[in-house]
Amino acid sequence: MNLAIPSVLLLIFCLFQNVTSRPSAVNIGSIFAFNSTIGKAAKMAISAAVEDVNSDPNILNGIKLVVTLRNSNCNGFLGIIEEH
Predict the structure, then answer these.
(1) Start and end of every Receptor ligand binding region domain (predicted)?
(2) What φ, ψ does residue 55 adopt, rounded to 5°?
């Protein structure tokens, strides 16, 4: 009988603990013209931001930020279907 209450508490704890898993990465896509002035600046800024976020484990609590950059070549449709 002495173990009944701790056993019930342990059972409740095990049943209601958070079982969701955290992703290992956050994926973001970006499409813009690499040969434009804005595209060149954006590409450098995005790369620097990703490096800053991934270098500090407190920002995303150890989850890696991954940005996929695609060149639109000034054509949004072709930028979407382009394969890397």
Answers:
(1) 42-79
(2) -80, -15
For the chain, counts of helices (H) and of strands (E): 3, 2
Sign of CA dihedral 56, 60, 61, 66: negative
Length of the chain: 84
Per-residue pLDDT tens for 37-84?
988 998 999 999 999 999 999 988 889 999 988 888 877 666 566 655
The stretches of the chain forming alpha helices (DSSP H) are 4-16, 37-55, 76-81
Sequence-distant (≥ 6) Cβ neighbours of residue 64 within 8 angstroms: 24, 25, 26, 54
CA angle 28-22-63, nearest 5°? 50
